[in-house]
Amino acid sequence: MSIILNEKSRVVVQGITGKEGRFHTKLMLEYGTKVVSGVTPGKGGLSEQGIPVFDRVEEAVKQEGANVSILFVPPPFAADGIMEAADAGVEWIICVTEGIPVQDMIRVKTYLNDKKSRLIGPNCPGVISPGKSKAGIMPGFIHKEGSVGIISRSGTLTYEAVAQIVDEGLGQSTAVGIGGDPIIGTDYKDLLALFEKDAQTEVVLLIGEIGGTAEEEAGEWAKKHFTKPLAAFIAGQTAPPGKRMGHAGAIISGGKGKAADKMESLKESGIHVIENPAFMGKAIRDLLN
Amino acid sequence: MKIHEYQAKELFAKYKVPVPRGDIASTVEKARSVAEWLGSDKIVVKAQVHAGGRGAAGGVKIVGDPDAAAEVARNLLGKELVTYQTGGTAKKIRTVLVEEGIQIDREFYVSMITDRAAAMNAIMVSREGGMEIEKDAVDHPDRILIEHIHPVTGLMPFQQRKLAAVLGLTGNAAKSAMQIFANIVRLYTELDASLVEINPLVLTREGFLTALDGKINFDENALYRHEELMVLKDPYAMDPGEKIAEAFGLNYIRLDGTVGCMVNGAGLAMATMDIIKHYGGNPANFLDIGGSADADRVAKGFEIIVSDPNVKAIMINIFGGIVRCDRVARGIIDALNTVDVHIPVVVRLKGTNWEEAEKLLNESPLDFIVAHTLSEAAQKAVEAAETAGGAV
């Protein structure tokens, strides 16, 4: 069945008239995603690639029945855009935007506390359920429908994993990029819970990075609640402390967030830890056999 | 973004967090005149570099008169400082901070960060200031208190009282501490900081609190709304490669190995460094040239990598998704026609149209080592670096 996105998902694009929004709307439409509406404040009434544009998310959701939102909104306006989507009652909010200030994300998280909407990202490639729908910036055609669930903090490293999995003759149920920022919406744990219940998913690959303790927490949760085979790779084994490795969240600080500690903790939780990133696909194949 | 101690103290003063009297000097004469103006028989001269551990490395001296302060400034200015936090590289001292010495009764630790798991800011205090804060957290949890700051309420007075109580402060000192905590929280949130640290915050023999040392880091993503902070960035504190990278929107961090890496995407860049290590090599850098990987960016990437004399071989690992591999390959060939690279270049392109890309690289008159898989590329790059005489 896949998680988050399926062939019925109706997607609204926030920031549809911007350069990125326009470009990726085209690619999402080509992939078969049901993009039903777009939002750009001040551009309501226009149409973009045949899709009606609204001033406000509420209108875009009500009039076109959207249940998933994807944001290509510039960083200064992204927090407002996420909250607007939650206010409009969108089920899943996927925020691609990179560079949102951390203090803005604190406000967003607080705002979302009593809302039913769930946020993916920010600073993420989005979500794809191959063969059904994609709401993101990942290259759709490298994916193949199948039984592997992927949860990752990275972009291109996820594509690398996807390609390796396809090279092994396997495919993905859903691949979710949860984002490389210090504060993100939905975490590994929440998504593992969805994959646990998803009949299409037989195995999950978790791709982590240095920084924070989300991977360790996911491992501890999985030990108690996750029954399917689970493999993990942690990027940044060679990263020195105190240096930000590109992603705002990928930093070893105050002795926390080292790859070695994460790998050790995941092993203790009974998760298959992949040491060499060239063999992510092979590890998944071995787990399935 | 990191700033210097003296800049942090200027911001503290602006936010009514008390700091010792003092001023900066980049010449010996200025150091002497600041010391004369202070008129104290205890003067502290502190090297201003972006690293902790300055005291142990000889970057902080206490003297008794302006002549001695000038002598210390003469010894420090223009010298290079290596501390346990500079990662083996030396930081050139261009400025010293000259301050009046403080008669210390007790030393505390105060810091503020964002707790990513809780999605809240948090303030932490410890009864013991100094270098051993991480160790202290484990050995004496009762001497440390972390208070989360709810985004709706801010730091409440009862929380300020709790923090002051952990420090064992009473009366006016406690009141002063509560004000300092509130002011740090205001500084942190108003200026989009990612770290504020006062280590130590001292109680003077006269019963006043003052920030003897300070560190502030800022959230780079929020600098767009703080023009006043951008001028605080010290261009000299950056590695030359890091400076070029910043100007062109690339992400580069210099490391101490011999295999230069050029990758698109931060996660894949880290994984590429990891696999080089896995096959016995050492990565010379982290370099994320971004998703589009066009010729200009690739050319800048080469320039940055070869600016590091330790690099003996380069590994390019690019996943061509929406940007096709054949376009990336053309970009690499074009870039090598404009930048002089005299070391082996291993190229591995994966994704859309990789077959055509490999053909282009193989047919080019330039001398590439083309690799097909991630492990093959890493092994070839490590081997090339070893052959070129790099001690890996």
Summarize the structure.
The complex is a heterodimer of chains A (about 290) and B (about 400). Chain A has about 290 residues and is α/β, with parallel strands linked by helices. Helix content of chain A is about 35%, strand content about 20%.
Structural overview:
The complex is a heterodimer of chains A (289) and B (392). With 289 residues, chain A is of the alpha/beta class. Chain A folds into two domains: 10-120, NAD(P)-binding Rossmann-like Domain (Rossmann fold, 3-Layer(aba) Sandwich); 143-288, Succinyl-CoA synthetase domains (Rossmann fold), CATH 3.40.50. Chain A is 34% helix and 22% strand. Chain A contains nine helices and 14 strands. Chain A has helices at 19-31, 57-64, 75-87, 102-112, 156-167, 188-197, 214-225, 259-268, 280-288; strands at 10-14, 34-39, 47-48, 51-54, 68-71, 92-95, 118-120, 126-129, 133-136, 145-152, 172-177, 203-209, 230-235, 272-273. In chain A, strands 3-4-2-1-5-6-7 form a seven-stranded mixed β-sheet, sandwiched between helices. Chain A has a seven-stranded mixed β-sheet with strand order 9-8-11-10-12-13-14, with helices on both faces. In chain A, helix 7 (214-225) packs parallel to helix 8. The radius of gyration of chain A is 18 Å and the shape is globular. The model of chain A has no long low-confidence stretch (mean pLDDT 96). Chain B is an alpha+beta fold. In chain B, strands 7, 8, 9, 10, 11 and 12 form a six-stranded antiparallel β-sheet that branches. The mean pLDDT of chain B is 91. Chain B is built from 13 helices and 18 strands. The longest helix of chain B has 20 residues, at 171-190. In chain B, helix 2 (28-38) packs antiparallel against helix 3 (66-76), helix 8 (240-247) packs antiparallel against helix 10 (295-306) and helix 10 (295-306) crosses helix 11 (325-338).
**Shape by Cα distribution of chain A:** globular
CATH topology of the largest domain in chain A: Rossmann fold
> Could you state the CATH homologous superfamily of the largest domain in chain A?
Succinyl-CoA synthetase domains
Largest sheet of chain A: 7 strands, mixed
- Using CB atoms under 8 Å apart, which protein chain pair has the greatest interface? A-B, 65 and 55 residues
Shape of chain B: elongated
Estimate percent helicity of chain A: 25-40%
| Number of structural domains of chain A | 2
Relative helix content of chain B = 25-40%
Number of DSSP helical runs of chain B? 13
Q: H/E element string of chain A?
A: EHEEEHEHEHEEEEHEHEHEHEH
Q: Could you list the spans of chain B in which at least 5 consecutive residues all have pLDDT below 50?
A: none
Radius of gyration of chain B: 25 Å
Distance between the termini of chain B: 31 Å
Q: How does CATH name the architecture of the largest domain in chain A?
A: 3-Layer(aba) Sandwich
Q: Return Rg of chain A in Å.
A: 18 Å
Average of the residue pLDDT scores of chain B = 91
Number of strands of chain A: 14
